[in-house]
Every structure is written in C-alpha cells, then in structure tokens.
Design brief:
With 260 residues, this protein is mainly beta. The chain is 5% helix and 49% strand. The strands form 5 sheets. An 8-stranded mixed sheet has the order 16-17-18-19-1-22-21-20, with no helix packed on it.
C-alpha cells in the first residue's frame, strides 16, 4: 500500500474497498424545518419547564424558586383552569403523566412529586441523584434528562433508575438535553439555549434528525423579555405537535417539514 493511500484517510480507503463499511465516518443527522399550523396564546409569566397534552388539555410545569407550579391549561385560550403551587424552596422542572398520576421533577433538590391527575393532590415524593430536567414516557418506562448528554430510564412504579444511554450525533455526545416528549417511537429533546430539537432513537441514543426551530417569535414578541425555547407536547390522537418557550407569549402547533 502506498504512502499516498495511507494519507488519504478512511473515506478513500472505504471507496477503494480496503476498509469495511463499519469503519466509515458516520454522517450527521439531517436537519428539518417546520411549518406553523396554528398559534395559541401562552402565559407570559409561565417559565415553562415541562409540557404535555392529555385528553384535550395542556398540563404544564413552571419553574423558578417561589414561582414554580403545576397547571392545567386550556389550549385554545391559554387560560389556566387548575393550578397548584410547588413549595417555594423547589425549582420545578420536567413533567409527564403515568396512568392516573402526574410526575414532576425539580432541578437541584433531587426530589420529585407525584400528583393525582384530576385533583392535583400530592400522592408521594421520590428521590433521585443529580439534577432533574426533562421527563416523558414511552408507555413502559419513564425517560428523564438531567442536563447532561444522557437519558435515564426510570421504572414508573418504583421510580428508580434502571439504565442510561448517551445521546450522540456523528460520534459526538449531545449535552444540555432538556425538556422531553415521546413522539412516534422517538424522544424529542429541547437542547438548552438552542433553537433546535433533537429527535432521538431511544434504543441507541442516536440523533436521527434535528428540527431547526429558529424564528418562531417575532421582534414584537421579544419586546417583553423572553427566555429560551422549551416545551414540547404531542397529541397522539390527532397527530399534533406543540412547542413553546419560557416566558413566551405564544404556543405553536407545528408540522415538521424538509428544509428548503
């Protein structure tokens, strides 16, 4: 083998049949865009940390110490129909449903809350290591993010961790995984401080596509301070995807489309 070929790298060697396909450099996940289907009002005071759609309503976990809450919200108007405040010492984070309960994380306290779905009455607390960020479920297990590059899998009955997987794209670990939603067999994850969503294969941790969420808000929307994109909810019955952000005045129903 010549020196020129040795310097050509694995891609050239692969093309010449000198390396197996498994040695090829993996391709980055494709990037998709979005189309806005409908715009709904959203409470500007809601520091959105967790968001789900269930039985015709949004359920939202809002953060900040002394301002954290659990809410039931009317989609069409943004009206808060039901609300319970989280004790002031906690910074609420991710939220998901499980059977007839709602499960809510907190940021740095290592304490989670379980509420009755209908009354919001607290049912139990549970402990976990590290930070709590996003939370969703796949019908079998809960899936949690902690701000790192990992997803944790949680037994929904014992609320104990059963495993973890590192999220990667093109061999690079993806950090700052934030709010989560399970959509058609994939985990959708906000990336903290970025206007994009990672769509993740939960068995492998591989990012299968990105959704570029740039330019959802107008300049007028930003005249009153807003924070980052955060909050994904999915209506599996009608195949509707919703997104919003912390302190955003709007919540968007979107369709994922190929970028032009």
């Amino acid at each position: 083998m010549s020196k020129r070929l040795l310097l050509a790298g694995p891609i050239t060697a692969l093309l010449l049949g000198l390396l197996p396909a498994s040695c090829a450099t993996p391709a980055s996940a494709p990037v998709y865009g979005y189309r806005v289907v409908h715009v709904y009002p959203h409470d500007r005071d809601a520091f959105t940390q967790g968001l789900i759609y269930l039985d015709g309503f949004l359920y939202e976990s809002t953060g900040l110490e002394g301002r954290s809450s659990l809410r039931k919200v009317k989609l069409e108007t943004g009206q808060v129909l039901q609300k319970t405040d989280v004790p002031a010492q906690y910074f609420a984070e991710g939220l998901t449903d499980w059977k007839k309960s709602l499960v809510q994380l907190t940021w740095k306290s290592g304490i989670g809350f379980v509420y009755d779905l209908f009354t919001f009455k607290p049912q139990r607390t549970f402990a976990y290591g590290g930070e709590g960020w996003g939370l969703t479920h796949d019908g079998t297990q809960l899936i949690q993010s902690d701000g790192s590059d990992s997803l944790r899998f949680i037994n929904p009955e014992t609320l104990r961790e059963t495993g973890r997987i590192v999220v990667q794209d093109n061999g690079m670990a993806i950090e700052n995984l934030n709010e989560l939603e399970y959509v058609k067999g994939e985990v959708y994850a906000n990336i903290w401080q970025q206007d994009r969503i990672a769509c993740i294969a939960p068995k492998t941790g591989k990012v299968v596509r990105w959704i570029d969420m740039s330019n959802l808000l107008t300049d007028a929307d930003r005249l009153t301070p807003v924070d980052v994109l955060n909050g994904i909810a999915y209506d599996s019955i009608h195949d509707r995807l919703f997104v919003t952000g912390k302190l955003w005045p709007k919540l968007f129903e979107i369709k994922v489309v190929a970028k032009k």
